[in-house]
Amino acid sequence: MRLLFSILLLAECAAAQDFGEIQLEKVATGFTFTEGPTWSPAGFLIFSDIPENKLLQFAPGEPAKMFRENSNGANGNRFDAQGRLYSCESHSRRVTRTDKKGKVEVVAERWQGKRLNAPNDIAIRKEGDVYFTDPAFGNQQDTRELDFFGVYHISRKGELEVIAKPKGRPNGVALAPDGRRLYVGNSDERNVRVYDLDKNGSASNERTLISGIEGVPDGICVDEKGDLYVAAKRIEVFTGEGKPLGQIVLEETPSNCSFGDPDLGSLYITARTSLYRVRLNVKGISY
């Protein structure tokens, strides 16, 4: 038993990522403020340039190109299991879904008759439940109709419900590999909260998982082991229990991240004017 434990421990140590030895690659640049990376099952990455009102497409080995010229201020993006693209449109204050033929459908726009603040980031369970954050930054606060910042759930039936109304502004959102926990970063409180999700996608048992994050917590993504990658002053990496694992330091402040490439073995990072990629010894999840 002791020998088996030692072998397992050595295997775990050998598999651990050394974040000081990673090779960071700038794969696209020349943008204004990049956000919302998400990998398509069709083999390319979509990301936003918010001030330029564009959605861009990047495929490995090719230059980035236009995906959508008028994105309505798209911020966070996510593909669902069917390959449909969900986008948080901050200018139009709604969440939309684009099917494979390019048809755009509004899936969330109002709560109890009032317009949303400015949907920011989004996560989708493989079963079809959608989760998004609705803060308000800068002049977005001047036109608010709602008196709270929200975290929302869109059920598989298309019904909208509020999960939380935090005092600080919620930002990045991600799911555990088994889809049973939801992680939400809070930019004002410098923390990440976690919620338990039931089989219907409803959330409960809110608690703080990570606190005292340096910088402003923004986007979040999760790998197949359940480790969290939080974009703040740098990319901060934590276990699913909130234990620090390491950091990925960039020359620009990161805004968001997502796993990509056909094997989901690369971490893509949006950071102000550029898109970065780093190969890791762990893979991401496909939702």
Descriptive overview:
The chain is mostly beta strands and 287 residues long. The chain has a single domain (20-279), classed as TolB, C-terminal domain (Neuraminidase), CATH 2.120.10.30. 5% of the residues lie in helices and 45% in strands. It is built from 1 helix and 26 strands. The chain has a 4-stranded antiparallel beta sheet with strand order 1-26-25-24, with no helix packed on it. A hairpin with a 2-residue loop joins strand 25 and strand 26. The longest helix is centred in the N-terminal third of the chain and has 14 residues, at 2-15. The protein is globular and about 50 Å long. The termini are far apart. The relative contact order is 0.15. The model is unreliable at 1-14 (pLDDT under 50).
CATH 4th-level superfamily: TolB, C-terminal domain
Summarize model confidence as the mean pLDDT.
94
Number of strands: 26
Strand order of the largest sheet: 1-26-25-24
Topology as a string of helices (H) and strands (E): HEEEEEEEEEEEEEEEEEEEEEEEEEE
Based on CA atoms alone, the radius of gyration comes out at: 18 Å
SSE diagram, text form:
Layout: H1 2-15, E1 24-29, E2 34-39, E3 45-49, E4 54-58, E5 65-68, E6 74-79, E7 85-89, E8 94-98, E9 104-108, E10 110-111, E11 114-115, E12 122-124, E13 130-134, E14 150-154, E15 160-164, E16 170-175, E17 181-186, E18 191-197, E19 203-210, E20 220-222, E21 228-231, E22 235-238, E23 244-248, E24 256-260, E25 266-271, E26 274-279
Antiparallel strand pairs: 1-26, 2-3, 3-4, 4-5, 6-7, 7-8, 8-9, 10-11, 12-13, 13-14, 14-15, 16-17, 17-18, 18-19, 20-21, 21-22, 22-23, 24-25, 25-26
